[in-house]
Design goal:
Elements (H helix, E strand, L loop, with lengths): L12 H21 L24 H13 L7 E3 L2 E2 L5 E2 L4 H10 L4 E5 L13 E5 L2 H11 L10
Parallel strand pairs: 1-4, 4-5
Antiparallel strand pairs: 2-3
Helix pairs in contact: 1-2, 1-4, 2-4
Length: about 160
């Protein structure tokens, strides 16, 4: 008989670390916002093969996951930036000012940020900065702002 195929190599340490981080964020979103995710198969893929390995993408990822699970699309004019802590809090990240300016340049009219970010009180012209304290507040904002208001049974 032919020899068995070589074992599949484990993911690189960076990839494995990011997978664990995403798993942790799923648990936080599940526990702190009431969006049932842990009992589901979850796949994350960024458009164009972009690798999401930076904590500033945590809030956007959490909103994308909640949006999918709740069948509540994010408004097209919204960008999000912030790290999600294990307690569900949304934390500031480095260079928030540049991130908000770049979002404005790309045409986003609303940017979701940690409420502690100074950009919440001083956004660029034409941009509404919306401060959020935690993922539960982010999911409440999503439910209220989504063009489709549906509710998914968590069972």
């Amino acid at each position: 008989p032919p020899p068995p195929p070589p074992p599949t190599p484990p993911p690189s340490s960076n990839r494995r670390q990011r997978q664990m981080c995403i798993r942790d964020r799923l648990a936080v979103l599940d526990r702190r916002s009431g969006v049932d995710l842990l009992a589901r198969d979850v796949y994350v893929n960024a458009v164009g093969g972009v690798r999401v390995g930076e904590p500033g993408a945590d809030l956007a990822l959490a909103l994308a996951l909640a949006s999918s699970r709740l069948d509540a699309p994010l408004p097209e004019d919204v960008a999000a930036c912030g790290e999600v802590g294990l307690g569900g809090e949304i934390r500031r990240v480095a260079r928030t000012d540049l991130r908000v300016r770049e979002a404005a340049r790309l045409g986003f009219r609303r940017v979701l940020l940690p409420e502690a970010a100074p950009e919440v009180s001083r956004p660029p012209a034409g941009v509404e900065a919306i401060g959020l304290r935690d993922v539960a507040g982010a999911v409440r904002w999503l439910r209220a702002s989504s063009p489709v208001h549906t509710r998914v049974d968590n069972g």
